[in-house]
Amino acid sequence: MGTAGHEEVLQGVRRPLVAGNWKMNLDHLEAVRVVSEVGLRLHGEDMGSVEASVHPPFTDIRSVQTTLEDRTIPVALGAQDCHQEDRGAFTGEVSAPMLARLGVRYVIVGHSERRRYQGETDELVGLKLRAVLRHGMMPILCVGETAAQRDAGATSEVISSQLKSALDGLSGQHVARVVIAYEPLWAIGSGTPAGSEDAQAVARHIRQIACAQAPDGTECAGALRVLYGGSVTAGNVGDLLSQPDVDGVLVGGASLEPASFAEIILGASRVVG
Ligand code: PGA
Fold first, then answer.
1. Cα three-residue angle 232-234-238, rounded to 5 degrees
2. Domain containing 238: what range?
3. What is the pTM for the complete model shown?
4. Among 52-61, 71-80, 162-171, 243-252, whose mean pLDDT is lowest?
C-alpha cells in the first residue's frame, strides 16, 4: 500500500488534525471563497503543530486544490468518500486513484450519513478504507453509536464491532495511518456534543481496540490519531482537545463559515501548541 503519512507513523507523532466535512454544501465558486477567507484568517497566525483539512464535494475539489496551492493556504485537501474499486463500470462513482491524482491527502470513509442513506456496510467501509491506503492517502474512518445504543449501554460493543470489521487483517503500521473519528450519531448536527470526558473514554477504547488486533500493536497505539466529531464549535474545541486521547476534531456545520472554522483551528493550536 502507499506511503503518504509515514512521517507521522515513523516518528510516533500524533499530529492534531482539524478536519472540515462540508457534506453536500457549497458549490465550487462558494468553495473558493470559503477557503480563500480561511486562508486570510490563518495568514500570519501560528497554527503550531495543528494540521487542518477541508473535505468539499467532488465537484469542488479541483477548484479548492488550485486555490490552496496558488495562495499557499496551510490546509490539506480532503474528500468525503470514494469507491472501493480503482476503475470500471460504476456509473456516478469516483475512485481513490482519481482523488490521489488531485493531491487529496485524507478521505472520509464510513460516515454515518453514508451508512444510513447509502446503506454502506462495515464490510464495504473496510474495502473503501483499503482503497484509500493503497493509493497513498489517509482514511478518516468514522465510527459511533446511535442514541438508542448509547442508552442501552452498548457504545463500546458497537464501536468495537465497527472497528474490527473495518480494520481486520491490517498491519499495525497500516492501522496507524488510519485516522479514526468517534462520531456519536446523536451528537451530529444536534448542537449537543458529547462531554469531553465521555469523548476521552471512547477515544481511549478506540485506540486500544484498533491497535490490539494488529501484530505490531504497540507502535500503532503511539501513532494512531483519534478525532472526535459531532457539534464541535470554537467554544468546545479546547475542552475536547485537552483530553489525552483526543487528537483532533471532525467538524461539520461549523466548517462552512470561514470565521468559525479558522477559530476552531486556532483554538485547537492554543490548546495543543
Ligand atoms: P456537525 O457534523 O459538526 O455538524 O455536528 C459532524 C460530522 O457529521 O462530521
1. 85
2. 6-272
3. 0.95
4. 162-171
